[in-house]
């Protein structure tokens, strides 16, 4: 049995009870058979499906008439988006945390620092996402973040909405050694907010341990324009690892005094950060925060 994911409808999975096939519109030849299709998207059943993506990378558009007829022939069942199917549920507060950003910015490295989350991760190859359950111990009790990592699938831009649905908080990550990854932050933010309105978001500038920094602290202004929290981090050195999670936990709990009472088990640092140099960057960031925002919407680099 083959399982494929379809984006365009919220909260439902379609189960076929017969074998059928999808024909490529260009030449009418059947290119794949399937028995099960899962649907991920933003709207309810009234919204037509727009794209069926096969693991082999074939995309096809569906007409409204054909889609509506097809929907009438299948069985619908409600699914939860807070976790993947068969994922363990817990009896303490848990939140879906979506981590987005350009490929190579260190998202996967970041979540893998948390050893428990790495050990208990679940992978869904159909949509190319890894979900890492990261537990933290606070003065108000234990909490869990289900960290949805796109697992290198950023290139499939049309599939992102499936990751975002029912996201309760988010991290947008860029690489301070690659200017383009910062320039793309507004796009990630726009796509995220289109699906997840009014959720707490942290912007993270990763790889501050690297010497040849291309995005200076004073040049990072997007978070001020959009009222986001910003942290400079180094995934490989564990620098500031907990800060994004603590900020999000406080926002979600509505308690600014919430704090972690136990450090998570992290993998040993792979590199060591120059703390003196980073303190200068942090001071530069604080100084920049006191300055007026630039008039234009574009982030410029000198």
UniProtKB/TrEMBL annotation:
Record CDD domains: Ran (cd00877)
Cellular component aspect of the GO annotation: cytoplasm; nucleus
Protein's cellular compartments: Nucleus
Gene3D superfamilies found in the cross-reference section: P-loop containing nucleotide triphosphate hydrolases
Keywords: GTP-binding, Nucleotide-binding, Nucleus, Protein transport, Transport
Matching Pfam families: Ras
Principal cellular location given in the protein's record: nucleus
Any GO MF annotation of the entry: GTP binding
GO biological process entries: protein import into nucleus; ribosomal subunit export from nucleus
Family assignment from sequence similarity: Belongs to the small GTPase superfamily. Ran family.
Annotated function: GTP-binding protein involved in nucleocytoplasmic transport. Required for the import of protein into the nucleus and also for RNA export. Involved in chromatin condensation and control of cell cycle.
PANTHER family to which the protein is assigned, alphabetical: GTP-BINDING NUCLEAR PROTEIN RAN, RAN GTPASE
Protein name as annotated: GTP-binding nuclear protein
Source organism of the structure: Morus notabilis
């Amino acid at each position: 049995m083959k399982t494929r994911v379809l984006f365009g409808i919220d909260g439902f999975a379609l189960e076929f009870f017969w074998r059928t096939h999808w024909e490529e519109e260009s030449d009418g030849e059947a290119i794949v058979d399937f028995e099960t299709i899962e649907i991920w998207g933003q709207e309810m059943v009234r919204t037509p499906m727009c794209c069926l993506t096969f693991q082999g990378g074939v995309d096809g558009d569906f007409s409204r008439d054909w889609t509506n007829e097809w929907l009438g022939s299948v069985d619908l069942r409600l699914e939860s988006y807070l976790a993947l199917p068969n994922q363990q549920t817990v009896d303490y507060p848990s939140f879906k945390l979506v981590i987005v950003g350009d490929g190579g910015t260190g998202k996967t490295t970041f979540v893998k620092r948390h050893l428990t989350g790495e050990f208990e991760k679940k992978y869904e190859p159909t949509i190319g996402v890894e979900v890492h359950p990261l537990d933290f111990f606070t003065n108000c009790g234990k909490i869990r973040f289900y960290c949805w990592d796109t697992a290198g699938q950023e290139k499939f831009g049309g599939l992102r909405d499936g990751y975002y649905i029912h996201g309760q908080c988010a991290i947008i990550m860029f690489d301070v050694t690659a200017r383009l990854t910062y320039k793309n932050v507004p796009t990630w933010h726009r796509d995220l907010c289109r699906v997840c309105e009014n959720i707490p978001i942290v912007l993270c500038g990763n790889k501050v341990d690297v010497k040849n920094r291309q995005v200076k602290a004073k040049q990072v202004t997007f978070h001020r324009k959009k009222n986001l929290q910003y942290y400079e981090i180094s995934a490989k050195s564990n620098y500031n690892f907990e800060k994004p999670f603590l900020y999000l936990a406080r926002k979600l709990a509505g308690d600014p005094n919430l704090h972690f009472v136990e450090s998570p088990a992290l993998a040993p640092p792979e590199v060591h950060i120059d703390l003196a140099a980073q303190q200068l960057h942090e001071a530069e960031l604080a100084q920049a925060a006191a300055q007026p925002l630039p008039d234009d919407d574009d982030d410029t680099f000198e």
